Amino acid sequence: MQHKQTEQRFANDLNIVSLISVGKHPQSGRERRAEQDGRAVELGMSLNAENLTVLHAGDPQQNALRSYAGMGLNSIRVLEMDPAADAIAPLSSYLKQHSPDIVLAGVRAESGESSGMVPYQLAEQLGWPLVSRIADIISVEGGVAEILQALPRGQRRALKVRLPFVASVDNAAQEARQSAFGPASRAALDLQSTQSTTDVIRDEWSEAPARKRPKRLKKVKATTAAERFKAATAKAQSDGGKVMKNEPAAEQAQAIFDLLLEEGVLR
Amino acid sequence: MSDIIRRDPRTEWIARNRLHPLHGTVSVSDEVEVRGPSGLLRKNPHKVGFIGPNGIKRIDRLKGNAAASGKGRKGGAAAEVQLPLHQVENPDFYIVVVPDMVGGRLTGHDKDMIGQAHKLINGLQSSSDEKGAVLAVCFGESKEEGFDTAGVDRLLLLNGDEYQGYCPEQQLAALVQVENTYQPKHWLFPDSVNGGADLGSRLAARINERPAVQAWLVDNSTTLSRGAGGTTDITRGTPRLLMLAEECAEPIDETRHEALDIELEHIPTVIAQLQDQGQVAVDPNAIPLGEAEFILSAGNGIHNWDQFHATATALGATEGASRVAVDDGFMPRFRQVGATGTWVTARVYLAVGISGAIQHMQGIGQCDKIIAINTDAGCDMVKGAALSTIGDSEEILAELNKLAENFRQQQADGSDQDAA
Ligand SMILES: Cc1cc2nc3c(=O)[nH]c(=O)nc-3n(C[C@H](O)[C@H](O)[C@H](O)COP(=O)(O)OP(=O)(O)OC[C@H]3O[C@@H](n4cnc5c(N)ncnc54)[C@H](O)[C@@H]3O)c2cc1C
């Protein structure tokens, strides 16, 4: 499938950094391009492909980094460090030094602790606003960005925020384009060495493959056999819903409409 | 007076004579067992048993249990028991929970979290004699009436103007103030997309705590949480700030709590950097059916399909269908709701001309409010619905369409005036 080259949507000199991490396939556990980070790169490329820095803190030998490069990147910047070490300090010092306009990251990583704290901690250390779970950046004008935030149930909220800011990119954002092998192997890895501190707290933790969580059972608090029998056999009773039988259609429709208004589903 | 019961021939005579003006006062008692005039215990056969649903008298051999079930709904409502009140006079420590309050009410996830908070308090109380309380911090308008039965000891309700709309920065400022005032032992947030995870992460970054996210088995010393996108379990010491997975603990159901309102002073008003521009209208039919909030669903009782689609558009509802409507080719397959279609989670499900076959009802089990439009008052959909209207779908939809279009017209006028 040929991917349509997305055009750069606004000609400007926005300086964007997309943070990437090594993903993990949920079934096979193989390393891959992380779903949300891929979307962050995609969003960055559609905003300003020229001035996009794709940044990774960790091991430059990782093959998964190449699959980001295969999206058509010229280079990936890697802050070399032990992947198990704390990435916040090197990332924030890099960002302080280069002061980009927009920093994009995924909501939660697919490997490691995956607590989703990276964008929050970076925003806190830089003193920038944080926009969570964005679906798209609609425009950037006069130093103010207009953002679509993804809400549950497929809803969207419009937000305005002044540059610079940190944003986490939701699964609702544009899907990452395919990764091509040629550009992936041609892209340059631009290494920078950093000092990182080992994550001492995490060394005390133990990790194991996820256990299956027990399903919650419906507990029956019955004191007599008759009650238990009833609980086991009773059909779910209607909770006495209102039935309108002989009213004219207009009145019935009005009742439905009022309920819809009350529930707040009519916008 | 002596204890010897003596015969009273006059009363006996009145009791025998049904036509005596005083007859009612002597013999007719509501009790089944009556001390007769002779002092012997008499059974009143007219009072034994109860009238069954079909009007026939039944003798209760289950000592009262059957009578309660025979009364059905009414019995259930009357039998609501007053749960014992759990009081904490002067709490020595607090565990703060920040519920999502979707639509102004506690969600199931919120209640699980409050249950978890009490579990932690019990653990802490068993090792010392300090008393703890659950403090719930709620933002925005609240429609919840069951804070007491959900297990909230103290309630901080922040619904001023500055908390309207999307205002995570202001909420964060309030939480930081709570942190400074109460120094809670733990902070609990629901790890949900409804705002709990966002607010929890913001607070964790601000007060420099390392949270456990997707925590699902928590006690006072260790926490088990999901890592690596849910594929690993991390065992660690229980941190101060936790974001809890769904069904992390059983909700409170055996006690009632005080839910005392408390006030918090000196919350700074922050200048928001994120400006809420309001929700954006999205095409309801672009929302996946399983996620949609409001579904208008069509069954075999729809004869005018153009009208159905027009109503869905006017109401802004996502369209759904029963299997019959799909099999007959009126709706695409991916709109099918039910066992072999999509399991929906809508808050409001409006079923038009759907009989409510079990395969369909399975798919809508998680919906909050079901509204039925049907010609048949006895069908299963009507039995399960919160509101049912019995009548022809075409007529009712026509009226509903009119109402919806009026509503949209008013909205448009309103926004025109705003613009002018
Ligand atoms: C293995 C299996 C899997 C299935 N899976 C599904 C599934 O996933 N989803 C699903 O929906 N079904 C499923 N079914 C089919 C299911 O059993 C029912 O046949 C189907 O749900 C009935 O659809 P209905 O209610 O639209 O039609 P009907 O049962 O024909 O009901 C039509 C209703 O419309 C009312 N009506 C008629 N005219 C009007 C009018 N003018 N105005 C108002 N009301 C009117 C009638 O009173 C009636 O209640 C499955 C069946 C099987 C065997």
UniProtKB/TrEMBL annotation, chain A:
Domain Electron transfer flavoprotein alpha/beta-subunit N-terminal: 22-200
InterPro entries documented for this protein: ETF_a/b_N, ETF_b, Rossmann-like_a/b/a_fold
The UniProt record lists the keyword Electron transport: yes
Top-rank taxon, per record: Bacteria
SMART domains for this protein: ETF
Key words, A-Z: Electron transport, Transport
One Pfam family per UniProt: ETF
Entry GO MF terms: electron transfer activity
Family membership: Belongs to the ETF beta-subunit/FixA family.
Stated name of the protein: Electron transfer flavoprotein subunit beta
Organism annotation: Amphritea balenae
Upper classification of the organism: Bacteria, Pseudomonadati, Pseudomonadota, Gammaproteobacteria, Oceanospirillales
UniProtKB/TrEMBL annotation, chain B:
Positions of the Electron transfer flavoprotein alpha/beta-subunit N-terminal domain: 102-211
InterPro entries registered for this protein in UniProt: DHS-like_NAD/FAD-binding_dom, ETF_a/b_N, ETF_a/FixB, ETF_asu_C, Rossmann-like_a/b/a_fold
Pfam families per record: ETF, ETF_alpha
Location of the Electron transfer flavoprotein alpha subunit C-terminal domain: 289-364
GO MF entries: electron transfer activity; flavin adenine dinucleotide binding
Record has Transport as a keyword: yes
Gene Ontology annotations of biological process type: fatty acid beta-oxidation using acyl-CoA dehydrogenase
Domain of life, source organism: Bacteria
Keywords from the named record: Electron transport, Transport
Family as reported in the entry's similarity comment: Belongs to the ETF alpha-subunit/FixB family.
Record-given protein name: Electron transfer flavoprotein subunit alpha/FixB family protein
Lineage, highest ranks first: Bacteria, Pseudomonadati, Pseudomonadota, Gammaproteobacteria, Oceanospirillales
